[in-house]
Amino acid sequence: ARRASGRSSAWSRATGSCRAGDDAARAAAALRPAPTPERRSALETLRVAREDSAVFNRRNLTDPETESVCFQAPAAAICPLVREPGRLALTDRRIYFQPINDATGGCAARSHSLAGIGAVLRRRCALRQTGLEVFFKARGDAGDADEGTFLGPSVLLELRSESEREACVQAMFGALAATALRRGDGDDKAITGGAV
Structure pTM? Predict the structure, then answer.
């Protein structure tokens, strides 16, 4: 594809360099060793150790002097295409998620008041009974609750085991009941939305 002037066209140069780039990418992929079971196991061990070493920073509490942490555990916030590991903490007033690496940027910990929780449902994550989805009330329906800093109307959290998830659910329902009693709502069905 040469022009009459003897120079190659921009089109042929561009497509030629793309083909060369594709070939280089294929060659690099062929040279990269496939993950072995030992390598996967070592990476999994490193990931678990890193998540276990993370601690919840009490400075991320909205009111560190009056809030008391009643549950905390390693967890991951699950979004489409993203598993964000971090630390889940539940206080007598709020739910917090502190990511190990803040992938979304902007805040060290996401939180929402317990008064703004509409429902809590047990879910599966990766076919295991370790998921917990927390739905937040629509803006204006939460009464005196603030909007919160979670990125949507709900958050899907994955805990390590079913027993950890159940401990979190029990702590959350206990904190929700205490919050309802402080506000004057005593109906357990209203607290949990009937989803236990």
Answer: 0.70
